[in-house]
Design a protein that fits this description.
The structure holds two protein chains of two kinds. By secondary structure, chain A is of the alpha/beta class. Chain A contains 13 helices and five strands. Chain A has two domains: about 290 residues, Thiamin diphosphate (ThDP)-binding fold, Pyr/PP domains (Rossmann fold, 3-Layer(aba) Sandwich); about 35 residues. Chain A has a five-stranded parallel sheet with strand order 1-2-3-5-4, with helices on both faces. The longest helix of chain A has 23 residues. Chain A starts with about 25 loop residues before the first helix and ends in a 6-residue tail after the last helix. The model of chain A has no long low-confidence stretch (mean pLDDT about 95). Chain B is of the alpha/beta class. Chain B folds into two domains: about 190 residues, Rossmann fold; about 120 residues, Rossmann fold (3-Layer(aba) Sandwich), CATH 3.40.50. Chain B is globular, with a radius of gyration of 19 Å. Classes of the chains: A alpha/beta, B alpha/beta. The interface between A and B is large, with 43 and 46 residues.
């Protein structure tokens, strides 16, 4: 089997055409801006973790194009289900990055209204969200809605999870309007894709009865074009599709990881030459679509965003102790109510104490 | 009033819920054309369509995982897990996702999913078809866990479970599916005892006997036999396993001074342990004897030809009752 990769912008920043995927009129400068801003958010979050202000951070470094390209292809009504590294998708769905910071700081488990942003909560258990997305898409189908579809993000490691195979099967037999967007960033912490699958990931879709494609995950234009087409097909009743965005996790798995134990520096250097942001910058500069003032403005905006985020992070209060007991049940619970009352009384015993 | 089996009463309850709320769905293995292996969903697909009564692929995690997604979209899915021993592939979705979603989202996401599970032994089944895993769910915050025991209550409870905005694990006593009783199918669920309340099914003065699901009938038979010997047993059907209705339990034990808990699940770290601990704490000065437990042994569920030794029966329950009078 041949492995074809869809590309519209080369690592050198050259626009190339693809017979099946046209680009149309797109805001490439906007894509550039988004990618720079989310990389800056990411850099700041890693720094905050190193300074002890966050418990953990999962860096998206290197995956900006896959996330910004795919998320910009969504319509406002489309629903997105992330894993836990989709900071770029969150950004495109209008989520304040402070919501992500709150989760990794440990003041909550990642709280926002999924319906308000059409962006579900982060999911940490690998692959679980693929079934939620498929069920949600079955709901879209039952509502008879023809102007919305669902996209679900997961990684190369997740493809080994049973839930992902079940989601593929379900989506296929029910022809659910869901697009499976796999960011193959080459690592499930330390394990390479060869440890997950003997065949390229996108080819697994054919066994379930729906199409799969591999796109250059560091090419924001290709990710945009391919996702836009897949979402349109899903909305029009053509069923699910698997997109494998072939990319590279340039950072560590999370801030607790040490990638020098399992990869060579030379490999990282090779992928740096395919940086998702640099190629867009080259393209914009060479074609004259953007000048140095634009790039300077974006960099300044990014620094301001990071400074604001840092200040907001440091100002986050810890949750009040009795909030522990909130939102466990909708209907009230006598056992939990008794524990809350008991702990309230216990805490009250310390009031006024030295 | 109509005389119905427990299976049929559940069917009627599901039918009412499907009629009253267009968002209610039923999904599971063989629930459509076949009507479920215990016929609980018999005829529902024919009347409500394949989009509302869904024959799913054979994968329990998929059933629960997609039900979660449907609930996020505003549906109220009722999942059938075919047998108790088949729920384990879905445990990750139940424990890590279904139970925690309201909490982690600070109430933004409500998941009104019901998971029906036929449970317990006594039907001569092969392995994995006779288990009582309720305590695994009772130990998981965010879930409501209930068990029905007779047709009338089952009819009301399934409707209450579907109406609840919390995820409910709904245990059905499979060896009692064919028990018949009068059911008032015209009664609205709002008239029924709330889902989190225990129910005194037989009043008595000498000892409180607590149970749920399949053993409620056994306990009533035991109470009847003991009554002939002049011993008055109060039998309480717990109904709700999480949360426990301690107010009803403790009020009874404070009066009788003795308490025995019977369940098919292993005694070790079972629901009886939690109840015994709470009763001891709440009724310490009223107790005439330690709280005793009758249940399965600390072994995997045995082969069918030996299950009569494993399952608590009338004699083992009365033996425990007698022992509470030996202190």
């Amino acid at each position: 089997m041949t492995t074809e990769i869809i590309q519209l912008l080369t690592p050198e920043g050259e626009r190339v055409e693809h017979p099946d995927y046209s680009l149309g009129d797109v805001d490439i400068k906007g894509m550039y801006r988004d990618m720079v801003l989310v990389r800056r958010i990411d850099t700041e979050a890693v720094a905050l973790q190193r300074q002890g202000e966050l418990g953990l951070w999962a860096s998206l470094l290197g995956q900006e194009a896959a996330q910004i390209g795919s998320a910009r292809a969504l319509s406002p009504k489309d629903m997105a289900f992330p894993s836990y590294r989709e900071h770029g998708v969150a950004w495109c769905r209008g989520l304040d990055p402070l919501r992500l910071i709150e989760m990794f700081r440990g003041v909550n488990n990642g709280v926002w209204d999924p319906e308000e942003h059409k962006f579900h909560l982060y999911t940490i258990v690998i692959g679980d969200q693929t079934l939620h997305a498929t069920g949600y898409a079955m709901g879209v189908q039952r509502d008879g809605s023809e102007d919305e579809a669902v996209i679900v993000y997961f990684g190369d490691g997740a493809t080994s999870q049973g839930d992902v195979s079940e989601a593929f099967a379900w989506a296929s037999v029910f022809n659910a309007p869901v697009v499976f967007f796999c960011q193959n960033n080459q690592f499930a912490i330390s394990a390479p894709p060869e440890r997950q699958s003997r065949v390229p990931i996108y080819q697994r879709a054919s066994g379930f009865g729906f199409p799969g494609v591999r796109v250059d995950g560091n090419d924001v234009l290709a990710c945009y074009a391919v996702t836009r087409q897949a979402m349109r097909a899903a909305r029009e009743g053509e069923g699910p599709m698997l997109i494998e965005a072939y990319t590279y996790r340039m950072g560590a798995h999370t801030t607790t990881d040490d990638p020098t134990r399992y990869r060579l520096a030379s490999e990282l250097e090779t992928w740096r030459l395919r940086d998702p942001i640099e190629r867009v910058r080259s393209y914009l500069a060479r074609t004259g679509e953007a000048d140095s003032t634009f790039f300077q403005e974006v960099d300044t905006e990014a620094d301001e965003l990071a400074a604001k985020l840092r200040a907001a992070c440091l100002a986050l209060p810890d949750p009040p102790p009795l909030a522990l007991f909130d939102h466990v049940y909708a209907d009230g619970n006598a056992i939990l109510d008794a524990e809350r009352a008991q702990y309230t009384a216990y805490l009250a015993g310390f009031e006024g104490a030295e | 009033m109509t005389k119905l089996t427990l299976s049929r009463a559940l069917n009627e309850g599901l039918r009412r819920s499907l009629e009253n709320d267009p968002k209610v769905m039923i999904m599971g293995e063989d629930v459509g054309k076949l009507g479920g292996v215990f016929r609980v969903t018999d005829g529902l697909q024919k009347d409500f369509g394949e989009h509302r009564v869904v024959d799913t692929p054979l994968a329990e995690s998929g059933i629960v995982g997609t039900a979660i997604g449907l609930a996020m979209r505003g549906y109220r899915p009722v999942c059938e897990i075919q047998f108790d021993g088949f729920v384990y592939p879905a445990m990750d979705q139940i424990i890590s996702q279904l139970a925690k979603m309201r909490y982690r989202s600070h109430g933004h996401v409500t998941l009104p999913v019901v998971i029906r599970i036929p449970f317990g032994g006594g039907i001569g089944a092969v392995e994995h078809h006779s288990e009582s895993p309720e305590v695994l769910f009772a130990h998981t915050a965010g879930l409501r866990v209930v068990a029905c025991a007779d047709p009338g209550d089952a009819f009301a409870m399934i409707q209450l479970a579907i109406a609840s905005d919390d995820p409910v694990i709904f245990f059905e006593p499979k060896r009692r599916y064919w028990d018949k009783a009068e059911v008032d199918t015209s009664a609205p669920p709002s008239d029924a005892l709330p889902l989190d309340k225990a129910r005194t099914v037989r009043a008595g003065d000498d000892v409180t006997l607590l149970s749920y699901g399949p053993l409620v009938r056994t306990c009533l038979e035991a109470a009847l036999a003991a009554g002939e010997d002049g011993r008055s047993i109060e039998v309480i059907d717990l109904r709700s396993l999480s949360p426990l209705d301690m107010a009803t339990i403790s009020a009874s034990v404070a009066r009788t001074g003795r308490c025995v808990i019977a369940h098919e699940a292993p005694v070790y770290a079972g629901l009886g342990a939690e109840i015994a601990s709470r009763v001891t704490e709440e009724c310490f000065y009223s107790l005439e004897a330690p709280v005793l437990r009758v249940g399965g042994f600390a072994i995997p569920y045995p082969p069918a030809r030996a299950e009569d030794h494993y399952l608590p029966d009338l004699d083992r329950i009365l033996d425990a009752v007698d022992r509470t009078f030996g202190y």
